[in-house]
Design a protein that fits this description.
mainly alpha; three-stranded mixed beta sheet; 12 helices; 3 strands
């Protein structure tokens, strides 16, 4: 179905089919995704609130964590409400321009998430290798500029996706076998040559994900060398303990990301399409859901503040009664 100008072969809207082959189970598939989304919104908003209101958390490490939380909750909000409407209310239509906008925000925010993880690795490197200069190197101005540069990088590299996708002719129809508008899923609906889209997508992935992974690897190589050189076993454990939350966040983010990226380009028919779609949704939902839990459990200062915040009134009441 094409829009008013049939010669342009541009559809007025797309139909998002959800998870092909599992339409009968859409209602049940939506339940864990909805549960994960609620946890992601509450957890990340809670972290942002704690970091903004607790003076003890006004440090570079937690500013980057707040930026990661904001990116995560925005990322899953761009897709999950629409996905739940597909699963529960069969509202599958999405305007062509709205689809392009969703595609832009999804890929920009995933690039932003990768960039923030890279900045957090650099933060751990400075904290462990240059502890006495930590506060002078990572000033508020430096943090703000680093966050802005990461955002602008994503915008500038992802913006061509929309133009490359919009120029394609869509004479095969307007059905997208996905729950949201992913770049390659939309491009593959086209009857034109989308090799430029695939090549540029690979280039953007290398410039964002490849560069970030390189910086993370270098940072942790230097961190590991610095930690091993410490004379005290307790000092080594304490230094590396500050990195465990970040390492977990890296694993949670990059493992499903790599699967989704390579499955789109090299998976062919070896991977069932419904498995690919489910993993693609997990890729967008798992990091926002797990990051607040990981940092809440693994980071002692956040854990103590959360316990004090949740039980503060009860503890005060107990002390008053005892006195």
């Amino acid at each position: 179905m094409c829009g008013g100008n049939s010669s342009s072969l541009t559809p007025g809207f797309f139909i998002l089919n959800g998870v092909p082959g599992l339409e009968a189970a859409h209602t049940w598939i939506a339940l864990p995704f909805c549960f994960m989304y609620i946890i992601a919104v509450l957890g990340n908003c809670g972290l942002i609130y704690l970091i903004s209101h607790e003076e003890a958390l006004h440090r570079p490490m937690y500013y980057f964590l707040a930026l990661l939380s904001f990116t995560d909750v925005t990322l899953c909000t761009t897709t999950v409400p629409n996905m739940l409407c597909i699963f529960w209310f069969n509202l599958k239509e999405i305007d062509f321009n709205a689809c392009l906008a969703q595609m832009f925000f999804v890929h920009t925010l995933t690039g932003m998430e990768s960039g923030v993880l890279m900045l957090m690795a650099l933060d751990r490197y400075v904290a462990i290798c240059y502890p006495l200069r930590y506060s002078t190197i990572l000033t508020n101005a430096v943090i703000a500029k680093a966050g802005l540069a990461t955002f602008l990088r994503g915008v500038l590299l992802i913006l061509p996706f929309t133009f490359l996708t919009k120029r394609l002719p869509y004479c095969r129809g307007n059905f997208i076998p996905h729950t949201y508008c992913d770049h390659m899923s939309v491009a593959k609906v086209s009857c034109g040559n989308f090799k430029v889209n695939a090549i540029y997508g690979l280039l953007a992935a290398l410039l964002i994900g490849g560069f970030d992974m390189f910086c993370i690897s270098v940072s942790y190589t230097l961190i590991l060398r610095a930690v091993v050189s410490l004379s005290s076993a307790d000092a080594r454990q304490k230094a590396f303990g500050t990195c465990t939350s970040h390492i977990c966040a890296i694993v949670i983010t990059y493992v499903p990301a790599f699967f989704t990226f390579f499955a789109h380009r090299f998976g062919g028919h070896s991977i069932p399409h419904h498995a690919h779609i489910i993993v693609a949704n997990i890729y967008l939902l798992l990091p926002p859901t797990m990051n607040p839990i990981v940092y809440g459990i693994k980071t002692k200062q956040i854990r103590e503040i959360m316990i004090r915040f949740l039980l503060g009134d009860r503890l005060s009441l107990v002390k008053t009664n005892k006195s």
